[in-house]
Amino acid sequence: MVSRQDKKKQKRKKGKWWKITLLTVAFFLLAGGGYLYSVYNDAKQTVDKKIHENVSSIDTSVGDKKMKEQKPLNVLLMGVDERSGDVGRSDALMVLSMKPSEDKINIVSIPRDTRTTIAGRGTVDKINHAYAFGGTDMSINTVENFLDIELDYYVKMNMEGLSGLVDAVGGVTVNNSLQWTDKGYYQKGYVYDKGTIQLNGPQAMGYVRMRKQDPRGDVGRNERQRQVIQAIIDKGASFSSVNKIGSILDVLGDNMNTNLEFADMRKLFTSYRNVAKNVETYQMTGTGTTIGGIWYLQVPDAEVQKVHNMLQNSKEGQL
Predict the structure, then answer these.
(1) Domain spanning 14-169+242-317 has what CATH number?
(2) Is 81 in contact with 91 (CB distance < 8 Å)?
(3) What is the pLDDT of residues 59-110, one digit of tens each?
(4) R_g of the chain, CA atoms, integer Å
(5) Sign of the alpha-carbon torsion through 30, 36, 41, 42
(6) Which of 223, 301, 272 is nearest to 101 (CA)?
(7) Burial 141-159 (b: 16+ CB within 10 A, else e)
(8) What are the tens digits of pLDDT across the range 265-308?
(9) How far apart are CA 157 and CA 91, in angstroms?
(10) Cα–Cα distance between 57 and 28 in angstroms, integer?
């Protein structure tokens, strides 16, 4: 029987990292679509010299060919938790499938506790451990093996960059439903009053990390994460943030990596811009199980096949 705690772990992890990723790309594309040349040039330099990073597991010439022919593209989105002295793990794994012929994007979230074979090691473990064992390449290979798909690009964002993004947009405003004092992440005694509150970067990190003082546990933490991400999007999209693009690019340059070059991003904007008209999200599901004292999510073969079909543009897998 699955315990209440196991059931909580199975609750849907909302797609917070793809929102950051799309916001990031939007800033670059906006820079190329009408802002001053100096802003455009700064964005290009940031992407191509700091953010761009090829990986051996993906042949970008395949994706380039697909892009020219406007065929579906699969992008792995990774939200990683990397701190000083720690190799980190992927806190969020999602596959974004852009389908220009349907003007649609499918975003599939893969729970981080999913039990699967880690490509390149031959061991069975939680899928998010692939990043700790072999970085981006092993994560890509493991996801491709798990879903039997081909990934064309990847985008990786470090969770620690969230604090910098909040400061770069000038802080955020959220509606806090719970009165509490931070005693965990920063242990600096930040007080979070109930109601509308203003947060700087470090305060925002404490806000999204807290779990133990919230009777809703992970559910409450996920809600706070969505609040902060939405607040960043709203603040970053405002006209008042145009003069902050330089600071935003600095943060992204230190916390984001992708094998997309700036020219690729512009091609995506011009050739695939209509896919954003219809965004469909899906959370993979399974059964919680404990093996050797470790909790896993066991995803059945039928669920894996459904997602494979979904990403391969098969009618059988339509949402």
Answers:
(1) 3.30.420.590
(2) yes
(3) 999 999 999 999 999 999 887 876 655 556 666 788 989 999 999 888 888 8
(4) 20
(5) negative
(6) 272
(7) bbbbebbebebbbbbbbbb
(8) 888 878 888 887 787 878 888 998 999 999 999 999 999 999 99
(9) 10
(10) 25
